[in-house]
């Protein structure tokens, strides 16, 4: 197994995930512990009589924390209400204190000291209750009344509870009971559907020695939300694996298991990817459940500490360097607490780190290019960077002349992803003008979703094909919360990335972008093998045709140019006849131009102009070829008045045929009465007299 110094940010240190430096620093003297309010994404650190708070995602180096008075007393747990008008503080195992932030008034909710204990609480955005109090005797659903400074009991659910797990991201509460803590009752508190109760279920535990029954710990149960689906990962310490469960409205379905290589395991989710931290082995494994696969997407590698590319101020740089030095060899410290979904809290040092994926490293470590493209198309964290990476991978795939079968799978992935992007109702991103006027056609907030379907529907969904692409969003049957090398020219990569970043973009790649940033960029380098590039484009068009995507005519112009360059005129005719090359004015005029050396190709272009009812252009081409009488008949039939009469008259005069010139003069005199008042009429009338 590769060993890497934990604090290293060297370019040769390989990792697929890292913690972002600098961290949020919460190590203020006289604070007593560090808590995470996942409902409001706040880091909370109480002092003797107040609580300091930092908003996660906001740099803390130059932003002092906010503070609120809390009064004196112990703090076992603390959370703000979701509207942040109140603070709830658990003072003991029997009491929770509520403080109105506006008035400063307080009151307490206590339990029976002789028969029950308070295990914890959380605020909800459920319409029927504001706060849930979890006790050993069950749960209390309460409404908070700030005006009366009191709580009202909505409902009490009696059951024996050993411990519980809850995440605001999923709005899911799991209550453990039984001798081994393997029997679970589940509730989801949804803003859309209210309170939904799951059927009671039992988690699997591997049997150990004869007289020993392992007890499941709350540290071994992890609720994760990926692609809008809710899963539970349960660590079986005896069997050394993680059991994966998926929640539906009427069932909890076991999906299989993933191996563990450490007696301590922690779970994070980053951009819909599950990270399984093997704490003793000091490595992390990545899983993507999009296609219902439980295979890791990368080899086990260390978690690195990397500096932020934006940290260029001297003060932040100095802080980062000191922290990096202090953290040398301390990755996966015993003091680490993993916060849902992607944070790590170092309680002893008062630091909170954000976990990030290195998608470029993940891409570079895989030899299955279509699969890595599919993985990248599901990411949402940095769309412009990921799109630029996908485009670079695709260009490299072509420049390396990979087998067409591999190219075809890659094109299927990219095209299906864009098609799904359009079906979702999204607006295609704008691209550079390519010389014509043609255009081409995450998880949400958990509280906006609810359990709406049943497990009787297909668990796999439509992902029966290994390369099929579907929306990484929830379907109605689910529990709903809300080695490819880089192209060598770095300046090219930078310019492409900047261009993509200038638009409100998604990771999905449009046909315009495929033309601009893939085919147009590789054309010169593929000049020695135009047939291969044509085959690549044909595979792209095949995929696009299946998804009924509109193509930019420039891609057809490129195909024709490549075929003409290698004198494959027969293939041009074949592609046009079979509608592989779609008709357009641009294509038709290109075929007419090619037809100067090949009459059949020119006729294809002329036929395409007629097919598209481009009568002006058709008449103009006939005149260029000297067929002025046929052009005249076409102009009469389709009432083409946009071609200048002088062009017809010049062609007729050049033939030195008085009858033809007279016919043209008569046509325009009848067809356009104002013609007789023009200078052309007088001039050509004189020419006609001379010929006669």
Automatic annotation (TrEMBL):
Residues 425-495 are annotated as: Disordered. Residues 458-474 have a biased composition (Low complexity). Residues 481-670 form the Mic1 domain. One of its GO terms (biological process) is regulation of autophagy. Residues 483-492 have a biased composition (Basic and acidic residues). Residues 34-151 form the Regulator of MON1-CCZ1 complex N-terminal domain. InterPro entries: RMC1, RMC1_C, RMC1_N. GO terms for cellular component: late endosome membrane; lysosomal membrane; Mon1-Ccz1 complex. Residues 425-442 have a biased composition (Polar residues). It comes from the Eukaryota. This is Mic1 domain-containing protein. It comes from Rhynchospora breviuscula.
